[in-house]
Amino acid sequence: MYGFLISIGVVLLIMVIWMVYRIQTLISVAKGSDKKIATTSNKVNAILFMVFLIGIGGWMVWYSVKEFHNYQLPIGSEHGIVTDRLFWITMAVTGFIFILTHILLFWFSYHYRYDEKRRAAFYPDNNKLEILWTLVPAVVLTVLVISGWKAWTDITGPAPDNAHVVEIMGYQFAWDVRYPGADQQLGNYDYRLTTATNSRGIDFTDKNAFDDFPSQSVVIPKGEPVLFNIRARDVLHSVFAPHMRLKMDAVPGMPTRFWFVPNKTTEEMRAELGDEEFEFEIACAEVCGNGHFSMRKVITVVEPEEYRKWFAEQTPFIKSNPDLVADLPVELKELAEIYINEE
Amino acid sequence: MAVANVSAHDAASTHDDHDHEHHDNFITKYIFSTDHKMIAKQYLVSGIFWAFIGGFLSVLFRLQLGFPDMDMSFLKPILGGWIDATGKLDPTFYLALVTMHGTIMVFFVLTAGLSGTFSNFLIPLQIGARDMASGFMNMLSYWFFFLSGVIMFISLFLEKGPAGGGWVVYPPLSALEQAIPGSGMGMTLWLIAMVFFIASSLMGGINYITTVINLRTKGMSFSRLPLTIWAFFLTAVIGLLSFPVLFSAALLLVFDRSFGTSFYLADIYIGGEALPNTGGSAVLYQHLFWFLGHPEVYIVLLPALGITSEVIATNSRKPIFGYKAMIISMLGITILSFVVWAHHMFVSGLNPFLGSIFMFLTLIIAVPSAVKVFNYLTTLWRGNLRFTPAMLFSIGLVSFFISGGLTGIFLGNSAIDIQLHDTYFVVAHFHLVMGAASFFGMLAGVYHWFPKMFGRMLDEKLGYVHFWLTFVGVYLVFFPMHYIGIAGFPRRYYSWTNFSFADMYTDLNMFVSVAAIITFFAQFIFVFNFFYSMYKGRKASSNPWHSNTLEWTTPVVPGHGNWVGEIPTVYRWPYDYSKPGSKEDFIPQTVPLSATPESNLPHEAKLVQLEKEIMAEEGEVLVTNESKES
């Protein structure tokens, strides 16, 4: 019933618009105003540009100020402070140009609207002006690029030797986390070894893998460098930790990495935001299939002492599932058993 | 040489044309036409059709994003099984919608619909040629595009859905059916369609380039070409050099999908089995793809900028400011567009050193773009502006070009891009600078050249309503996306509620969706205006905008061969608007300098002398020709 009423309403509306349209066409033909150029429409459009400038421009400024704390994500890493500063410097520069050029664009549109008594200025070129507005953007951009380049080389440079290594492997549709254990060496992996119990394809003939352990969340210490070793098992994924200002694709067949220094613990961040539920999160930023939007992993940042304590308490893969090393050659198996039986 | 040939050929060809008119039947006139104007209209109508399909797909996924709890059962008649029993949109189909929206808009609407329409329509008319260099190849170009469209359209109705890995179709996702259902038949059809599309683009491009180089009329030197033609010419060059690379990328993907090769695949464990492929590189595909993908941005943008230059100059009644600077900046953009592709790959695992190089190159390309904006602004300054709908859309384009271009400075900076990559900030950026700007260029072109296409005027008032609804609508859709992007919302997400950092802005997303739906429906005003005016619009005069370029010297509806009689000769550049001393505020390109002593500039005196000498020579040739004939 409602559908019927709505469709009747729509039909009536269209008919009304149609009538108005026909009438105004006929009137303009009768008045001969369809031949004129300096029409009321011309003036109305010119005024509308000013209305647009003030109305929409004002709305943009108002909303940007009002929502500032909402869209600005808290920063959880040291390099994040640098990149955010660059972001806001760029915002200041481009924001200024944005406002200036738009004022000019709409003001000119309004001010120089058609007037039969006036004639446009014949002003075809001015090389000095062209050079000026080639050089000024070039210089401004150079400054921006060089500061960006410096930050980029610092961020992507080699990780410090003492960085805590965490392996993050993406697959449809979750992340698996692996820590290197006491020896600080991740064991080798081979995708062909992947099974239901060995989802990461860890090669346990490599002794370094004996003390490797999994974790439900990514636990990392505050104030110390952390290195993410990133890989993917099936399709492209991308590790995106928005608060850490961190993003790096996970590529099957090509390990990638990203190192950073977390600068706030989860607890500190909770206190700061007054949000007891707050968690640092990892999301997937490269489309990977149906569950792309649900690849959540929590990063827990803790004080270094707490981290060391937690690290020492974890159980290696082979301890929680000794079957993983059941098929190893005798010597290696004996070695593995030492890890398994360790208290 | 070409010039001489044209004039010698003229007398004969006018007679031929006359014959042709009688032989045209429905099929040769409207379907398998080799006339550049008809092919342009075919492209235009196809482009409009695809724009509505692409727009409709975006409305569907905007419904999901803006109203995630909505019961979408009412869409069942159209979407069938893609709406589940509880009225929810299927997440696989969501990805397919996003993918097809991108593919359709980028390739079918803004490449074929824009270049295909206006390069075809305007190149012969504005350079003074009877038709394209090869009318037959031009026809093939359209029909390859049509075939490509048919295949892509069929893929929308597959049981497992069309391709769903994003319009960039990165492998391994696009190579493995186990990874996403759309990578089965849907992806196969996508690849076949793209192969035909690329062939179509190449045939079109070769034609455009050849025609511009060889078939310009007498006096139409490169330094007198309208900026539209410069833009179409450079666009065709970019397409010719970059589309083959996409072809190679697609071909290797076909091999990986169907013939067991490992160009892009390595070390994959999926669906409970380890695949045998090793040694391939998924990043290789990204390099090949973006080697087209980035120039593609300029393929859709340059024609729009060319159209805008022409429309703004005409309706400001002023020469375009810095004609030479405009050409140089377009050349700069053309060349630089080939060396910036890896800025799409800063966080793909690319060597960071390469990232630095591409950051520098990317920000250089901002300079010519800035020059263009300043030149547009100066053209408006002290003009006498006529707000035709085309002019409004051109001003809108300049606004989008600024807004979207400036955010490019953030994204081109690799350090800042770490955070913004693949968030809604990117979505906002490219929809403004390449989507909306090019779309507005296309609409400006339609409003401006409709009288030449159909001999009737589009209704202005409807044009105004269409413009204001669309202009405001586009800003309301895409501006809020910047906030969402800065807040870190990733792209191609079916829902954001799984993450606490993104579990907000439901109100803003709803706002965006409502704005998108209104903007979409506002386009029906245009469609009505377009088809109604085609038959019932006010009759156009031969030069309704008082413009200088050659197409307005043809009959109101030009027939085969465009000009009755000889092709006019060109004596001046196309931007002599409001020249001091001249009575009218425009002097068409066909008016000799010697006929306008009152408005000639000091440096033009020499040219007048030259012109007189050439005319005298011409006179002699004509006399000898006549004496031979008699």
TrEMBL record, chain A:
Q: Which reaction does this chain catalyze?
A: 4 Fe(II)-[cytochrome c] + O2 + 8 H(+)(in) = 4 Fe(III)-[cytochrome c] + 2 H2O + 4 H(+)(out)
Name the cofactor(s) required for activity, per the record. Answer: Cu cation
Pfam families in the record: COX2, COX2_TM
Q: Does the keyword Heme apply?
A: no
Protein keywords: Copper, Electron transport, Membrane, Metal-binding, Oxidoreductase, Respiratory chain, Translocase, Transmembrane, Transmembrane helix, Transport
Q: Where in the cell is it found?
A: Cell membrane; Membrane
Which residues does the UniProt record annotate as the domain Cytochrome oxidase subunit II copper A binding? 161-313
Q: How is the cofactor bound?
A: Binds a copper A center.
**PROSITE patterns to which the protein is assigned, alphabetical:** COX2_CUA, COX2_TM
Describe the location of the Cytochrome oxidase subunit II transmembrane region profile domain by residue ranges.
60-159
Q: Which GO terms describe its cellular component?
A: plasma membrane
Enzyme class (EC, first level): translocase
GO biological process terms, alphabetically, are: ATP synthesis coupled electron transport
Q: How does it sit in the membrane?
A: Multi-pass membrane protein
The UniProt transmembrane annotation reads 6-23, 44-65, 85-110, 131-152
PANTHER family with a match to the protein in the record: CYTOCHROME C OXIDASE SUBUNIT 2 (PTHR22888:SF9), CYTOCHROME C OXIDASE, SUBUNIT II (PTHR22888)
Its family remark reads: Belongs to the cytochrome c oxidase subunit 2 family.
Please state what the protein is called: Cytochrome c oxidase subunit 2
Natural source organism: Cyclobacterium qasimii M12-11B
UniProtKB/TrEMBL annotation, chain B:
Q: Which SUPFAM superfamilies match?
A: Cytochrome c oxidase subunit I-like
Q: Which portions of the sequence form the region Disordered?
A: 1-20
Write one Pfam family the protein is assigned to. Answer: COX1
Q: Which residue windows are transmembrane per the record?
A: 43-65, 93-118, 139-158, 189-215, 227-255, 297-313, 325-347, 353-378, 390-412, 424-450, 462-490, 510-532
- Its main localization is membrane
> Is Metal-binding tagged as a keyword?
yes
Organism ancestry = Bacteria, Pseudomonadati, Bacteroidota, Cytophagia, Cytophagales
Q: Which family is it part of?
A: Belongs to the heme-copper respiratory oxidase family.
**Which top EC class applies here?**
oxidoreductase
- Record has Oxidoreductase as a keyword: yes
> Coiled-coil regions in this chain?
none
Species assigned in the record? Cyclobacterium qasimii M12-11B
Classify the protein's membrane topology as the record does.
Multi-pass membrane protein
What this protein is called in its record is Cytochrome c oxidase polypeptide I
Where can this protein be found? Membrane
Keyword entries, A-Z: Electron transport, Heme, Iron, Membrane, Metal-binding, Oxidoreductase, Respiratory chain, Transmembrane, Transmembrane helix, Transport
**InterPro entries, per this entry?**
Cyt_c_oxase-like_su1_dom (IPR023616), Cyt_c_oxase-like_su1_sf (IPR036927), Cyt_C_Oxase_1 (IPR000883), Cyt_c_Oxase_su1_BS (IPR023615)
